Amino acid sequence: DTGVSQNPRHKITKRGQNVTFRCDPISEHNRLYWYRQTLGQGPEFLTYFQNEAQLEKSRLLSDRFSAERPKGSFSTLEIQRTEQGDSAMYLCASSLIGESAFNEQFFGPGTRLTVL
Amino acid sequence: SQQGEEDPQALSIQEGENATMNCSYKTSINNLQWYRQNSGRGLVHLILIRSNEREKHSGRLRVTLDTSKKSSSLLITASRAADTASYFCATVARMDSSYKLIFGSGTRLLVRP
Q: Which of A69, A106, B16, B63 could be A75's S-S partner, Cβ–Cβ 3.0 to 4.6 Å?
């Protein structure tokens, strides 16, 4: 399977715990994006990388959130001291750089986080 | 508020009928994209239309873009039960000195067999 993969698919944690999610993009894609989606809403942009450089961070991304893409391949998203409001689906996507500012993005299946 | 807003929020049609979903946005865009999401799954890219294009086709999909009205529509012809999903428009626009891809809240389409 050469699509975008995310692990774990589901995560249940207690408030105050730290969690880390992993995303493996399509191998030749140089851009990688993280989104958060709550029930009944569209995805909200969190951050994106071009190769290993983090180029943009949303104001939604508080200091408790950090993302890395150390070798320009897979990425991790960590949430420290989780809060109930962090419960959501966390989506990862990847794309190639192309003619348009943002090209077609390929999404992974997401990681559903539940904070108790 | 969201850059892109879809209308209607929910749509229920009979298999074989056409489904039309609309998207309105507020600022100038570089391009507009439509995505589909089946329940609890990731999004699938359907079509991208650039700001200098007015219409695009892909199989049973037809997308129009009217930059003067800041609106787009997605038409699915001869719908099938498998088209049941949520459909999102996403606009690529320059905000705060960088480009962003911003999704609307989606249209939930139900195609009854």
A: A69
